[in-house]
Amino acid sequence: MHLRIPAAVFAMVLTAFAQSEARFEVASVKMSPSHGGTRLAALDTDPAMVRYANLSLKLLIAMAYRFDSELIKGGPAWLDEQHYDVGAKLPPGVPKDRVPEMMQALLAERFKLAVHRETKDARIYYLVAGKGGPKLKKSDGADTPDPDHVRGDRTPASLIPGGVIGHAITVQQLAGLIGHAAGYQVVDRTGLAGNFDINLRWRRDDRDTSSPDLFAAIQEQLGLKLEPAKGSVEVLIVDHAERIPTEN
After folding, report:
1. Strand segments (E) across 7-71
2. 3-state DSSP call for residue 201?
3. Strand 137-138 and strand 83-89: pairing?
4. Any idea where the domains of the chain sit in the sequence?
5. Which of 223, 226, 222, 229 lies closest to 163 in space, CA to CA?
6. Is the pTM of this model over 0.85?
């Protein structure tokens, strides 16, 4: 007995398979030219293309796997040092939210990247409401200039020396930025919803005695606090990566 699959069903199966194996139509991956002591990273997207300039492989991995770069472990020493330029064209009809999985395939192909996930017990911090309650400023959606930004591009959030600048960001995003500054994972336990404008400043080094440290600044300026805890943290382990990408 032969099983017959209607043509329409067969086409749907092929379409689903093609979508599950989405890859960039054309892609270029090159080592970035040296910029001396200064490196300016750039991210640029349009409906049909992605362009990343002067990014380390670790940051490309972080974007591809939607992972905090601080939780990417292992790999060769140059993972943070060598920078790359990536330009890639999306297949027709493929939405932008599939770019990360296409990046995964591209990194595996060009860098022979191999990774795996592990769960480890680690010190973390919970971001919670402080004494007196939160002091966060709700975002009204209007652009406000930031004197610490010297470039003309607009970014929703930035971690700068001694501060966090955020425009219309969630508290979860804020927790991620604070985590980078603290060196530990920070988990949002505030229960606050919505978007906020953040201008958080703390002392840059021990010589600055007039400014609060990170923990005090969070309490004083945002009405929040960091509570130390132990928790399970998922990390991404880099098993293998090659420094020179294969030819385009």
Report:
1. 26-31, 42-46, 49-56
2. strand
3. unpaired
4. 18-111, 121-146+155-234
5. 222
6. no
Q: State how beta strands 83-89 and 26-31 pair.
A: antiparallel
Distance of alpha carbon 46 from its chain centroid, rounded?
18
To the nearest whole percent, how much of the chain has pLDDT over 70? 80
Long-range contacts of 179-183 (CB under 8 A, 24+ apart): 179/68, 179/70, 179/125, 180/68, 180/70, 181/214, 182/125, 182/214, 182/226, 183/70
Give 80-117 pLDDT, tens digit per residue.
999 999 999 999 888 888 899 999 999 999 999 999 99
Residue 145 corresponds to which amino acid?
P
First to last CA, the chain: 48
The tokens for 206 are 């021990």
Beta strands at 185-188 and 114-129: parallel, antiparallel or unpaired = parallel
**Token reading at 64:** 């591809």
Across the chain, what does the average pLDDT equal?
82
Confidence band for 195, pLDDT divided at 50, 70 and 90:
very high
- Please determine, for residue 79, whether its predicted confidence score (pLDDT) is greater than 50: yes
Residue 146 DSSP SS3: coil
Residue 140 contacts residue 169 (beta carbons within 8 Å): no
